[in-house]
Amino acid sequence: MSLDVPADLLAAAERGPVADAEFVECVRTSLPYAWEVISSVADGLSKSVDGFADHEVPPPSEAERGQLLRALASDSIRGGLERHFGMKLAFQNCHRVGGFAPSAVDSERYRAFISPRGQLLNQSPELRDC
Known about the structure:
Strand content: 5-15%
Oligomer: single chain
Number of strands: 3
């Protein structure tokens, strides 16, 4: 299960749409490692001069790796995080997360990051089973 959904939030979702703030809070509390990684990318992006920041540290355990994968593989979770932090997320492997300012999404750096070449260049034998 990706998220630990409080009963009141589940009941609200059964009645209709829920606010992004409530959804993002559920993500924050359910996936604390993923939240920490994405928050650090957002913090780096806020200090960036070129509209890019990334995180390249492998997760400390499979549990944390799973959190990151669940957060970035889900369109709704990823979208909620992007809206909350005001950035476009890009994901290359089990731990490399890039954050781009909206103005940098059409940049050469963004296109290189999400390209097949960028994916291939970011591989190594120790990451094969990540």
